[in-house]
Design goal:
Layout: H1 3-6, H2 9-15, H3 18-54, H4 60-68, H5 73-86, H6 92-100, H7 105-117, H8 124-132, H9 137-145, E1 148-152, E2 162-165, E3 170-182, H10 193-210, H11 214-219, H12 222-229, E4 239-254, H13 255-317, H14 322-342
Antiparallel strand pairs: 1-3, 2-3, 3-4
Helix pairs in contact: 3-5, 5-6, 5-7, 7-8, 7-9, 10-12
Length: about 350
């Protein structure tokens, strides 16, 4: 069968023409590009139109590139609209860079706008540094405009008052309120609220401890405020202390009397221990003396036991006669009689 019958001549000639194939491929590519553009416009067209109407030109390709780089286009576009309306010279690339660094773009932009309205000098770079350091830059700007009050001690410390003791031993319990304003220049690397609370508490304890009597503090509570403020407690911190107000001062326990009572009880126990030690030494010495007496008595008994032996030896050797022996006995009897007369009975026949 002839090929011309199956295929028309113009169509067969077109299939064999390379330019026709290129045209088909080009049309297909254009269709794909058009579909991609339509899909991108349907997806991000709202953001593009919003930015365009706000007067900040953000290209559609830029918005698509944000998505490809892992950036939320809506957040960047909203931030760009805010800075444009506020008249801040911040580019889209700067906002995107801060987002990629892990920062909170919208809060940084809100802080910059608030600082600009309050005539506070705050650059975009410093605001980004504060945000990346973990500080809430928007709250810092708000605190700079509207100072905040810090309770001392704070609720997180688990204590209701700061306790201090005057020189007379009376305890005072104090509550203070510290009014502070954020120091933007020292916000990065500066001490935070816990440091301010600790410094104020230390100053209160030192001031009360230096008072001769608790009555002096009760009569002039502002003495605490003036003394603490004069120490420059906000040095190296993120805040500037505006005032320290004593909210309440209560009289606590008589710590001095309690310490004296405890010391007296301790001294009594020490004295009792020393007395018991001396008694124990006395008992030991008494027992040693008794033992020594028994030892000496034993020696006397041993010596007396040698007397009969010596007398027997004297009789055998002829050095002692019978009359001498009886004379010795008479002397011993006479001595015993005299001892009995000189004894407790005094020679009374009824007691003899």
């Amino acid at each position: 069968m002839n090929a011309s019958v199956l295929w028309p001549a113009p169509l067969a000639a077109r299939d064999n023409d390379p330019s026709g194939i290129a045209t088909v491929v080009l049309v297909a590519l254009l269709v794909i590009v058009a579909l991609v553009f339509i899909f991108a416009f349907l997806t991000y067209g709202g953001l593009y139109i919003r930015a365009l109407l706000a007067g900040c030109r953000v290209k559609l390709l830029t918005i698509i590139g944000m998505r490809l780089r892992g950036v939320r286009p809506a957040e960047i576009v909203d931030a760009r609209v805010m800075v444009t309306k506020a008249g801040l010279p911040i580019s889209t690339d700067q906002l995107e860079t801060h987002y990629l660094a892990g920062g909170k773009v919208l809060r940084v932009v809100a802080a910059l706008i608030a600082a600009s309205k309050a005539n506070i000098k705050l650059t975009f770079e410093r605001a980004c540094a504060i945000d990346l350091a973990g500080r809430d830059v928007l709250e810092a700007v708000r605190t700079s405009v509207n100072p905040k009050v810090i309770d001392c001690p704070s609720a997180e410390m688990g204590r209701a008052t700061i306790d201090a003791i005057a020189k007379n031993g009376i305890q005072l319990r104090v509550k203070a309120r510290v009014t502070v304003r954020t120091n933007i220049d020292r916000l990065v690397g500066g001490a935070t609220e816990p440091t301010i609370i600790a410094r104020v508490g230390e100053g209160i304890v030192s001031t009360i401890g230096s008072a001769a009597s608790h009555k002096e503090v009760l009569e002039n509570p502002d003495r605490i405020s003036k003394t603490v403020l004069s120490k420059g407690l906000d040095a190296g911190s993120s805040f500037e202390i505006l005032s320290i107000d004593i909210a309440d001062v209560d009289v606590g326990e008589n710590i001095g009397a309690r310490l004296q009572a405890d010391q007296a009880a301790a001294d009594l126990k020490v004295a009792q221990a020393k007395a018991e030690e001396r008694r124990a030494f006395g008992v030991a010495a008494e027992q040693e003396n008794k033992a020594e007496i028994q030892k000496n008595r034993a020696l006397v008994v041993l010596a007396e036991a040698e007397i009969p032996k010596a007398m027997a030896q004297a009789f055998r050797e002829g050095n002692l006669g019978v009359m001498d022996y009886y004379s010795l006995k008479n002397i011993q009897a006479d001595t015993q009689m005299r001892q009995s007369i000189a004894g407790p009975g005094g020679g009374d026949p009824g007691k003899a």
